[in-house]
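The instructor's notes for this session suggest beginning with a concrete chain rather than abstract definitions. Hand out the sequence below and ask the class to guess, before any prediction is shown, which regions might be ordered.
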Amino acid sequence: MEAREEEIRQRVVAIGRLMYQRFLTDSAGGNISVRIGERVLSTPRYAGSKRQWQLEPEQLVLVDPERLTEEQAARISREIQAHFAIYRALPQAGAVIHAHPRYVMPFATLGLPIPPVWEDTLKFGTIGLVPEAPAHSAELAEAVAQALLPQAAALQKHGLAVLIPKHGIVVAGRDLDDAYDTLERINGNAECILLCRLLEPSNRT
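After discussion, reveal the predicted structure:
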């Protein structure tokens, strides 16, 4: 295993644990992938439900998206097709995170976009939604990629994100740190929206 691949594996494991600790995803699912040349390194299936995001570097799966074997397909996250679709549509994307963040989920559940209210989330614009589609489907994967495609130029400067109704969020970044930073900022922005509503005059006693 090359030194760079080993370093990336360790970083993915660390980010997965951090996401779980900070309620940026849950045991119900989520997944992380990083592009390494023509291949994709991904978290395994059941990273949340069976491992509670306490992964080891060797448990990650390195695949060629164009030559996915049956054995790899059985080990890899079921949402990997959305990651592959993003990498095909956005060559500059270096990492993808799908997650269920605590404060993003109310917006995804109700099908509501997340407007930027923090100065440091203005660059992301309003986080919109894709049309509803079955989980793990090619239809959903393509919808996610097509939703991010119009923002392709912005990916040169920062991460991109889109909500999946009743499901969660997908973030694409230039690299894994970029994707994680985008995820945490959007979740914090969503939390701020929800908490600020408690301070609105109509809610004060």
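Then share the key points. Strands lie at 31-36, 39-42, 61-63, 95-99, 160-164, 168-173. Residues 3-203 form a domain with the L-fuculose-1-phosphate Aldolase fold (CATH 3.40.225.10).
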